[in-house]
Amino acid sequence: MDAEKKDELTQTPSVSEGKTAPHYAPEPSSPNDTIIQNAIEAIGMGRYQWQLLASCGFGFIADQMLLVSISLVMPQASKEFSPQYATLLPATQYAALGVGAVAFGFLADICGRRWAWQGSIFGVSVFTAVCAGSPNWAGLNVFIALAAFFGGGNLAIDLTVLAECLPRKWGFLLSGLACLWGLGNAVTGLIAWPLVVNFCCPQGATSETCTKADNMGWRYLYIIIGCLCLTMSIVRSFALGMTESPKWLISQGKLNEAVASVNIISRLNKSSVVLSVDELHHYERENPYDMQRTLRLLRGLFSGSRQLRSMICLILLWVLVGVAYPVYVIFLPYYLEGHGAKLGTGSTYQTYRDWSVSSTVGIVGPLLSAYLVQTRLLGRRRSITVTAWICAIFAGVFTTVKNEAQNLAFSSLINFWLNAMYGVIYGYTPEVMPDAYRAIGCGLTLACARLASLTSPFITTWGDVYSSVPIFVCCGLFVAIGFVSLVLPFEPYLD
């Protein structure tokens, strides 16, 4: 690397967001970590990062399609199979998402980011399509669990690989990328809308009157989503691609591979920066398959008072989000349907039209987040607080709507602010994880959210899915999220 450029980067803070804050590790970062980060800063934002951003965007879309499709399929499949507790189907998905997040997090920190990143979305595509062939309710649960296992690891790896290759001043893209959740919502709703209206059994149908031939709409939905995910998987692996994360390679002591990875990024970005292995500090490589090292991955996440406080707050934050988000989003179609008699026709057409409109509005929310997190007044932590409390306000007002226009307007506004809040939290989480433990850290926090989401099916199953109670539960959770975010110890790039 050019010596003058290297010295400049070592002495100069981040160019856009004030003083730079490190990825607070439980022990001081090694000199090699600093050299790799300085090289990424010197190379700058270019073709490689934009390709990686698009590839990770596929993961966000696939994750949301997987999550949202179950809420659209559940009412339709239950007509055909008549299970005793239809609304417990998401519990299967959330349990598998949690297991997948932890499993892929460990594997990505032990064996590398690249293969886990490429394989996760492929697994989602295969098993989502297989869901269409479910012969009964039990089979549907099994296939949904398999798809969710791969989906659980997908988003944690996306966050990890993107955070490790972005120059610091471009960190706001981690929050802005969440706009693709709204796109995933909208696309899934728009696909499901004509399929459910034209190829599913009518409202009030039971297993005695609803045959497979009359109820193919939800199966078509899973086939289409599976094909879309397969297409994204192929493009991600063969057209866009990625090199192994240089930060992970450094954490494994693979100096030559790390240098090669940095130089590939530089070459793709048409940068003149060239890193040499002679610039790195040599030390003994740990055995990546050592069980003691695996246990240290978890211990390292909770080492030091600030890191311990950070992890406790993050886990609590994700648990609250894990309950609030699905209680509102997964059961929104039921709420809209239940209020249709007062606020409109109550038809399937109106239910999915409102879903599609509110989801489309939600696309814009994370774009606002990307701006808010760069402002010194708010930063990451206060942006979470502001967006969470606005969600609480609109969710409370949502229960007082008097006509269909208000119903659609307030559900759209909640989706806007909900996605804005979620985007900041997703972007913040990998930014404050230690480099060596980032994948398992992201996987662990996401797993906590998924496991917490297991409560939402039970809340709605033994509550009234058509009442306002789940919405008021969300209000309280959003308020709590706002308070927890104020206790977070780290403010990246503004400390």
Automatic annotation (TrEMBL):
Task: Name the CDD domains on file.
Answer: MFS_SV2_like (cd17316)
Q: Which GO terms describe its cellular component?
A: membrane
Q: Does the keyword Membrane apply?
A: yes
Gene3D superfamilies in UniProt: MFS general substrate transporter like domains
Q: Which residues cross the membrane?
A: 52-74, 94-112, 119-137, 143-163, 170-193, 220-239, 311-335, 355-372, 407-428, 465-490
- Give the lineage: Eukaryota, Fungi, Dikarya, Ascomycota, Pezizomycotina
Say if the entry is tagged with keyword Transmembrane: yes
The entry lists its GO molecular-function terms as:
transmembrane transporter activity
Q: Where does the Major facilitator superfamily (MFS) profile domain start and stop, copy by copy? A: 52-494
This protein is called what? Sugar transporter
InterPro entries per the record? MFS (IPR011701), MFS_dom (IPR020846), MFS_trans_sf (IPR036259)
Alphabetical keyword list: Membrane, Sugar transport, Transmembrane, Transmembrane helix, Transport
| Region of interest (Disordered), residue spans | 1-32
**Membrane topology classification:** Multi-pass membrane protein
List the subcellular locations.
Answer: Membrane
